[in-house]
Amino acid sequence: MDILKNSKYLLLVSALMLSGSAFAEDGLSGANTAWIMTSTALVLFMTLPGLALFYAGLVRSKNVLSVLMQCFSIACVASVVWFVAGYSLAFGAGNAFIGDLSNLFLANVAEGTLSGDIPESVFLMFQMTFAIITPALVIGGFAERMKFSAVMLFTVFWLLAVYAPVCHWVWGGGWLGQMGALDFAGGIVVHITAGVAALVAAIMVGPRSGFSVTPMPPHNLTLSVAGAGMLWVGWFGFNGGSALGANGDAGMAILVTHLSAACGAATWAGIEWSKYGKPSVLGIITGMVAGLGTITPASGFVGPAGAVVIGISAGAVCFYATMYIKQTLKIDDSLDVMPVHGVGGILGTLAVAVFASSELGLFSGQGLDNTIGAQLAIQAQGILAAVAYTAVVTYIIFKVISVLTGGIRVNEDEESQGLDIVSHNERGYDI
Predict the structure, then answer these.
(1) What span, in angstroms and rounded, lies between the C-alpha atoms of 299 and 257?
(2) For residue 35, is it within any domain?
C-alpha cells in the first residue's frame, strides 16, 4: 500500500512538473493569470455594486433606482461596445492617436492568444472593467436630471470617441506613452477624463431645480458607506492588477493605495472637524475616494512615504476644490466627480513625477528616467491634452445626443416626481 501511495504521489508531482514546463514553454504564467483574473473581478466589483451603492445613497430617495439602473446598464452597454470596437480602438496597432479596426468583434482573440504572459482574453476583460467604471463615474455629474436614453447614448459615443483614444494614447502605444507619460492605473485615462466629462455635463445639463437654495442631502449614507467600503477593497485590483503580474509592483501598488486612501479620508474628516466642529461620514468616505483616485496614476511608481503625502494632499486639495466648484462657481456637479476624481487625477498625475524619483530619501519611489522637472513637463502635457480633448469631444457628444433625443434633460415636472418613476416606473422604497 505504501508503494502504491508513493507511486501516486510521484505521478502527481511529475504531472505538475510537466504542466509547469508546458506553461513555461508556451509563455503563459499561471500565477500572473490568476492574479489578473482576480483583479478583473475586483474592478467589476467596484462598479457593481460598489459605485452603484455609493452613488445611490448620495442622491435623493426618489432617484435611488435611477442611479442603480444607470450603473448596471452602463456595465452592460460598455461591455458590448468594448467587444465590438472599443478594445480594438484602444489597443490595436493603429497610429499615435487611435488604434485600428483589426480586432473588431474580438476576431483575433482565441483561447491560446497571449498578451505578454497572460491570455489576451484575460487582459482585454481586465481592461473592459476600466471601460465600464469610467463612464459610470461620469453619471455623478448629471445625476437626478438626465434622460435614461441620453445616458445610454452617451455611454456608447463617449467610450468610442473619448475613452478609447485617450486609453490608446497612454497604454495602447500612442503618443503619450511614447513620450514617457506615467499613468500606472488611470489618472489620465480614467479619472481626468471622467472628471472633465462630468463637469462639462453638469454645465450643459444645468443645475438641479432648487440647487444652492433647497438642501439636497444624501438620502441614505448607510448605502454610501457600504459602497465606499467596496470601492476601497476593489481598488486593490484596480491598481494592483495594473502591474499585470503577481509581483513586487502589484504588492507595492496595493500598499500605497491603502495608505493614500486612509490618509485622504483622515485629512478630509480632519478639515471638517476643524472648520465645522464635527467630522462627517460623508466627508470621510469622500476623502477616501479622493485618496484612491489621486494615488492611482502613481501607485506603481511611488513608495509608502510618498503615498502618505499624496493621500494627505488629496484630502485637502479635493476638499477645497469641492467647495470652490459648488459654492463659488455654482456648478451642480451633483456627486463631486470633477473635484474628487478630476482634480485628484490631475494632482496624482503631477505627483508621480516627484515621488517616483529615487533621490528623495524616505520619500523615494522606483526612480525616473528623466529629471523631476522634465517628467513634470511630460505629465503636464498629458493632463492638458486629456482635459482639452475630453472637454471638446464631450461637448460635441452632448450636442448630438440632445438632437437625437429631443433634449438630454427631463422636464421640471418629471424631475420633481423623480427619475425612479419617470424613467423606470418603480420606487426604491415602498413604505
Answers:
(1) 6
(2) no
